[in-house]
Amino acid sequence: MKNWDWKIQMLVVLQFGLSSVIVLSTPLSKLTIWNGLGMISGFLLFLWSIAIMKLHNLSVGPVPHQNAKLVTTGPYRILLHPMYTALLILTGSTLIFESPIWRLLMWLALVIVLNFKARYEETFMQVQFQEYEQFKRTRWRFLPYIY
After folding, report:
1. What is the Cβ-side half-sphere exposure of residue 54, based on CA atoms within 13 angstroms?
2. 87-125: b (≥16 Cβ within 10 Å) or e
3. Average predicted confidence (pLDDT) for the chain
């Protein structure tokens, strides 16, 4: 299995492109306390996930580093992909209340992109970590009790 084939590269580009457009196209005049709380919540979950994972384990793509360790604490006790969840919360919270349909469609595209990227990542994790299959069975992918 190639580590960074064109499909993975495209998913990473789409992830950053879609999330950037969603956030940067948010009219500041339309933001409310609820948007702000959602964005802050997503950002804090993202920071918590990085702090628990440690920078040496962090990878932009779905391929874990050769010497990576399986992280099972913090938000990883509940979620397989808390950083993706954080990104969905952060970007999704910009859509609360007034938002054109094209922004909602971009967010739904981001959900699809992250789902594909997560599945790739899980495949690589199963190859690298023997215990990943059991770990995966006891966690939610993005949203507790939903998915």
Report:
1. 11
2. bbbbbbbbbbeebeeebeebbeebbebbebbbebbbebb
3. 91
Q: Are 80 and 141 in contact (CB under 8 A)?
A: yes
> Do the domain assignments include residue 142?
no
User: What's the predicted TM-score (pTM) here?
Assistant: 0.90
Q: Residue 97: give the domain boundaries.
A: 10-59+70-137
Is 83 within 8 Å of 58 (Cβ atoms)?
no
Q: Which residue has the tokens 């949203």?
A: 143
Q: Residue range 24-50: average pLDDT?
A: 93
Q: Is residue 144 part of a domain?
A: no
DSSP, collapsed to helix, strand or coil, labels residue 63 as coil
Are the CB atoms for 39 and 93 separated by under 8 Å?
Answer: yes
Q: Domains in the chain: how many in total?
A: 1
CA distance 91 to 26: 9
Report yes or no on 40 lying in a domain: yes
Taking the C-alpha atoms of residue 96 and residue 117, their distance in angstroms, rounded to an integer, is: 25
